[in-house]
Amino acid sequence: MQTIQIKDKRFRTFIPEADILREVGRVADEITRDLDGKNPLFVSVLNGSFMFTADLLKRLDMACEVSFVKLASYEGVASTGKVKELVGLNEDISGRTVVIVEDIVDTGLTMQRLLETLEARQPAEIRIATLLLKPDKLQVKLDIDYVAMKIPNDFIVGYGLDYDGLGRNYRDIYTVID
Ligand code: IMP
């Protein structure tokens, strides 16, 4: 077991790279089985999903396209507080099969907002692929089509996920100790 320190927190190895890649490969097989022939557009949500997106797409054996988007927070008017706006999607997605690629679904609020935004652009269908899901934290009803791994509520870093901007570069996933 390897321990790493990021700022004030210590983390230990939780999911080694080999286990991650095995589950990513399984999801890639499921997606190929379901969507081959539909030329799906993968919409990868930056920053966290960059490693997952790369490994997933390398394992897909079919025609597909990929686009990278960001959810930018800005202060909304009046009492609405923080609003997240989708930036970077230039493709016309009407009539297309879209697969959202996320690093982690925690409360699900980010995903719900993203779904609403994409649905307004009238795709034929939207599927969701997430590397990680914290089932016990989910606050909204979501149909998640592809989940590589379910994890407990603890905070994790690595394989694209960060703590305060750091830790995205690690190949394994680490969980917080203290
Ligand atoms: P949600 O809206 O609560 O589902 O949050 C989703 C976002 O929170 C993810 O895209 C991550 O950026 C971030 N997040 C949630 N849990 C973790 C974690 O354990 N480590 C790092 N980032 C996390």
Instruction: Report the CATH topology name.
Output: Rossmann fold
N- and C-termini, Cα separation? 16 Å
Rg, Å, rounded: 16 Å
- Output mean pLDDT: 94
Please report which band the strand proportion falls in: under 5%, 5-15%, 15-25%, 25-35%, 35-45% or over 45%.
35-45%
Order of helices and strands: EEHEHEEEHEEEE
Low-pLDDT regions: none
Bound molecules: inosinic acid
Quaternary organisation of the protein chains: single chain
Helicity range: 10-25%
- Broad CATH class: Alpha Beta
Our count of domains comes out at 1
With helices defined by DSSP (H or I, 4 residues minimum), what is the helix count? 3
Question: How do the strands line up in the largest sheet?
Answer: 5-4-3-6-7-8
CATH architecture: 3-Layer(aba) Sandwich
Any overview of this molecule?
- With 178 residues, the chain is an alpha/beta fold.
- It has a single domain, classed as Rossmann fold (3-Layer(aba) Sandwich).
- It is 22% helix and 35% strand.
- The chain has 3 helices and 10 strands; from the N terminus they run ββαβαβββαββββ.
- The protein has helices at 17-35, 50-58, 109-119; strands at residues 3-6, 9-15, 41-46, 65-75, 82-87, 97-105, 125-133, 146-150, 156-157, 173-176.
- A 6-stranded mixed beta sheet has the order 5-4-3-6-7-8. A 4-stranded antiparallel beta sheet has the order 1-2-10-9.
- β1 and β2 form a beta hairpin.
- α1 packs across α2.
- The longest helix has 19 residues, at 17-35.
- It is globular, with a radius of gyration of 16 Å.
- It starts with a strand and ends with a strand.
- The model has no long low-confidence stretch (mean pLDDT 94).
